[in-house]
Amino acid sequence: MILFIALSLLLALCLVFLYIFFRLGPILTAFVAKVYASCVFTSRRNPASVSQGELALVPFVNVNIDKEARKVTASLGGFFSKTAVYKPGTGCSLLLGSKEEDVTKNCLDKDQFFTTPPQQLRLHAKEQDHVVNLRQLEQAFDYAFHQPKKVNTRAFLVFHHSTLVMEKYAEGFDAQLPQAGWSMCKSVINALVGILVKQGRLDIHAPVNLWPSGDLRNQLTIHQLLQMSSGLGFKEKYLGRTDVTQMLFDSPSVADFVLKKPLKYPPGTFWDYTSGTTNIISFKLREILGASYHNFPYQELFAKTGMHSAEMECDANGLYVGSSFMFASAHDWARFGLLYANDGVWEGERILPEGWVDYSRQPNPAAEMGRYGAHFWLNAGEKDHPEKRFWPSLPNDLYYASGFEGQFVMVIPSHSLLIVRLGQTLRKEDYDMEGVINKVLKAFKD
């Protein structure tokens, strides 16, 4: 009897293992291939630093890096071989059944859009009219890099009145090294939408009309998608084989995966943060822009703000994965933040339409504690009760782009501050951003 029970338990464990292995294996190997390829070819990092950093928890996946062909293949015990390939200008894409020549045709020469060479933002670290206490600011920087838990901060920058006051980088990283923004890319999609609005080519309150005639999902608007109130049944969970992991790492078309999702709530009535909504916006942008789709971010945003290192990455079908895949240097992520800190104006040229920044940080009424606007996170607090907010000790006008592993581009208008933090903290909750920002605020007197 005991032997029977033991054998039954062993069989059950084997079945569970096989279920997990074959269910999660394709996701895991695709994730490894994509991260390795992006970090090595888009970010130009040493493979050893990637294996010791982003992929330290998956050493059992076999990886082959072909530097000449600029592609990475990952497999798990000989199963689930997945390949990611790099294309200049549109980053790394997972093949996922697509032919390599079909994926690599999306290349573009992004340098053609830049009329001036890359320029480093100038540091102005001195006691400015007794406005900043540099010793206190240095203490804030020390805390940004060294907290009770290991947080792996890679870059931290503080700007005051659009002037770079202090910056610091981890060993192996610097101001010009492209780094992953993950979901900060969603805020970049916000900018692209704003530019099309300024050009008169997009009405954010008009129905998107992406489904067959008569489908209730056609009621959806870009405004509702930007505010994460699509009502689509897409769940933002990352552990296991979920909607978001399948979309990013097991679907040739990230948009098609989301467009198949049914309505769970009437559009505009329920706030639910989902990466899928951003990729629907990216799909709609391609419908509007046509052949100029791949050039558009460079021509209308990156070149005009001097973001030379910026590179948005595509899926196998050539769609920008606006939810998650963009690399840029610390200085270029800062340039993006400065655009918003200056009301959408860059060196005298209006890039975003007048009022767009205010619109972007207008709370979605359905979002708890006024936490979300139009593809930007907020600290606004509850309506009529602003003290009930996500970070109670921080200003309620703070708004920010945020990404996986603790990527932040934060704007605090009331203090004329812009703060950029890049790093690799596996759980964003482990990083005391509220404490860091409080220390930064104490260093400034206005």
UniProtKB/TrEMBL annotation:
E.C. number(s) listed in UniProt: 3.-.-.-
Example GO molecular function: hydrolase activity
Keywords: Hydrolase
Pfam families in alphabetical order: Beta-lactamase
Ranges where the Beta-lactamase-related domain occurs: 155-428
Protein name (Swiss-Prot/TrEMBL): Serine hydrolase
